Amino acid sequence: MIPELVSLAPQLPLPVAANAVTEGIGAVLQWDTLLYIGLGMLVGMLVGAFPGVTATMAVALASGFTLTMEPIQGLAVLLTIYVAAQFGDRVPSILINTPGTPASIATTFDGYPLAKQGKAGLAMTASALGSAFGMIFGIIVLSLFGIPLAGLARQFGPPEMFALVVFGLTMMIGVSSGRIFKGLVAGGFGLLLATVGRDPITGDQRFTLGILELNGGVPFIPVIIGLFGLAEVLNQMVTHRRDRAAEKPISQLGAWWPGRELTGRLFKSMGIGAGTGSVVGLVPAVGGDIAGIISWDNAKRLSRHKEEFGKGSIEGLTAADTSSTATLGGSVTTTMALGVPGDSVMAVLIGSMMIWGIQPGPALFTNEPSLVYTLAMILLVATVLSLGLSLVRMKSMVKLLELKNQYLWVIILVFCMVGTYSISNSVFDVFVMLIMGLIGLFMLRFGFPAGPAVLGLILGPLAESNLRRTLIGDGPEAFLASPIALVLFAISAAALILPPLRAMRVRRKQAMAGKDEGLSVLIP
């Protein structure tokens, strides 16, 4: 598949490619851009270290403050927060068995058991090295396949683009933790919000209720801050328990560096994790949490020390963390080259880029090839700095985990209000954020995922405009005449149909096993 992709995509002449690389790297190696990368790294590490404060929430909050920056500087802040959070979230996963972000779920499988054995320092070192290796491997994927994938997708017409948007929506719904129906409802809610404003074909107003601020559509940055930031804080307030004795972090970190024998096992696990994560990352909406679990299972099957997995395996920890970070390169590639967010953080990033006047999609990388290398350089610098900070033996991180949630809630609420207002100095945006925060709280309490809602809001206009152009131009037959559209529709249908069928089959096997066990008890 990869050779076909490269051969189908238009290739850049060598002088143009060299200039693109030089311009892309030079745009990052400016003192102000490097300063913003450092700022993003500190914020991201803190975000990852606090359980419950997700990278999506942090990027959503930061987006309100970065919109006045130049695009490269804003991207530097947002991407670095995302990268650094991938390192910081391993700390609570290892020390208190609580994932800092969903991407570090698999870290808890072996990280916390290692910490209980007095090997917390070793676990954090292995995690940091694996995360850095996975991130760099993902950056290579972005650099090699970003432009070819965009060149291939640029040949898409309205039928293919509509099918691509449907593919992205259904993939995010299909991986909504088994909540297919609720994911569909959330996606439908986002698509409904996307219809507010002006008709993409005729320009007529619709569903604005006479509110002048809605003529341009529902502002998506306040929606994102409300659904991911305010809603999470409100949910933590509702579910907060006073007894935190069980969450006291492990303070005995022990040794930090692995010996020669463990180092060899680390490299093998990194290879497994990087290969798994880079492939999973290219699939829209399949995030690091899923990649980490898949890679942990792969590493267990290929290990000579299977008995250690789940009880304190350095191989399982490294494979999971390498894989979950390796998805970032593929996620950025699909987001920028196809215009379909690779995960919820990328959905937030698309919203910010659209305000900057940058439209992710097939034309972006082919028109501005230097942007590929700018993004890759930002990710590389952020990875190196985050790795260096992660390897500093700071016992203050243990003290940081003991900070009361109440203080954190106040800080986040203030940032939600100030960040939303600063977008366009509009009180209306703050009201939208507050309303979406309450809706997001309802969604969290009743199990509706917020990702499909945001994706529906952002991709809704793109889906509608391409669908209507197809129907006006060639009619429904255009979809049948496009093999690419048919394949994307087939994959989308499978993403919605197969998970419930698989769950039904598992329940049937469990029921049969229970029935057989009952018969064995009755029949001596």
Automatic annotation (TrEMBL):
- UniProt signal peptide: none
Residue spans crossing the bilayer:
34-60, 128-150, 162-181, 216-234, 345-365, 371-394, 406-424, 430-458, 478-498
Superkingdom field: Bacteria
Q: Which InterPro entries match?
A: DUF112_TM
Q: DUF112 domain spans which residues?
A: 34-455
Q: Quick check: keyword RNA-binding in the entry? A: no
Keywords for this entry?
Membrane, Transmembrane, Transmembrane helix
- Protein name, per record: Tripartite tricarboxylate transporter permease
Q: Which organism is it from?
A: Citricoccus nitrophenolicus
